[in-house]
Amino acid sequence: MKVPTTDYAALRDEQRRLAAAVERTDRVGSVHVIGGADVGFEQGGAVTRAAIVLLRYPELILLDFRIARVPTTLPYIPGLLSFRECPALLAAWQMLPQRPDLLLVDGQGIAHPRGLGVASHFGLLVDVPTIGVAKSHLYGSYAPLADSVGASSMLWAGESLLGYVWRSKVRCRPLFISAGHRISPDSALQWVQRCCRGYRLPEPTRFADGIASARPTWQALLAAHAANGEAKVEAKAVASCAADPSS
User: Fold this and answer.
1) Mean of the pLDDT values across residues 198-214?
2) Does 246 fall in a domain?
3) How far is CA 84 from the centre of its chain?
4) Of 18, 214, 236, 238, whose Cβ has the fewest other Cβ atoms within 10 Å?
5) Domain range for residue 101?
6) What share of residues in the chain are helix, strand, coil (percent, to 5)?
């Protein structure tokens, strides 16, 4: 994935071109393995760390995961985050022992000013059904939600349904769920609901979020998995991008 780093107008034009190829209808087969993806940053943003997990569905048991660290090639620019995050996600994807049947991505799908958040962009790149599961609002209008668990509101751009705002847990901010690629907004919501187990985040992105953030509690869990032969970490590194041994 080649990303120009200075011509931001060209990147926006590329987003519009790619957005036209995003499929907003269901093309999801049988789901036996479901993935979760998230991205974090190290060394003050100089290194992009991507994590992709594989869970057995419907049990949602962790099967495997991969982590990639690559040099960050683009600064933080609102609306262009997928170009910043997709290189590391692709590196992690290429390490996976198998492709998931469905992938939940921590970020926006089509709920984006140009219709191409990271979930949609990455779904196009790997041609897998994807769902955007964002922790905050970026784009689209919606009615206020009730405080109760399960409350939802449609997320619109004009007359186009992008997804749903859904409260997964009491006293927690809602999730902003949108179609990524090869899935409809309604199905995107239903799959996220099926993957929740009492936490704010659905299990695929909850695992990926923890792994990508390199928090010590998650690293202890992953070490236990690795010791049992249940999962492996493979760091995609370059000379200027060595893995932090403390992570």
Assistant:
1) 91
2) no
3) 13
4) 238
5) 28-227
6) 30, 25, 45
Q: In which order are the strands placed within the sheet that holds 152-157?
A: 61-71, 47-56, 33-42, 102-106, 130-134, 175-181, 160-166, 152-157
Q: Where are the beta strands (DSSP E) in the chain?
A: 33-42, 47-56, 61-71, 102-106, 130-134, 152-157, 160-166, 175-181
In a domain, 181, yes or no: yes
Q: 7 labelled as ligand-binding?
A: no
Quick check: pTM over 0.85? yes
Share the mean pLDDT of the chain: 89
Number of domains the chain is built from: 1
- Inter-CA distances, 162 with 26, 34, 49, 145, 236, Å: 14, 22, 28, 17, 34
Give the model's pLDDT for residue 219: 65
In the block, residue with structure tokens 């590329």 = 14
Least confident of 20-24, 54-58, 195-199, 236-240: 236-240
The reply to whether 238 falls in a domain is no
Residue with tokens 């751009």: 157
Q: Are 65 and 230 in contact (CB under 8 A)?
A: no
The residue with tokens 């609002």 is 137
The annotation status of 106 as a binding-site residue, yes or no, is yes
Classify each residue of 132-151 as buried b or exposed e, where b means 16 or more C-beta atoms within 10 Å of its C-beta: bbbeeebbbebeebeeeeee
18-66 pLDDT, tens digit per residue, is 999 999 999 999 999 999 999 999 999 999 999 999 999 999 999 999 9
What CATH number has the domain bearing residue 150?
3.30.2170.10
d(C-alpha 163, C-alpha 179), whole Å: 6
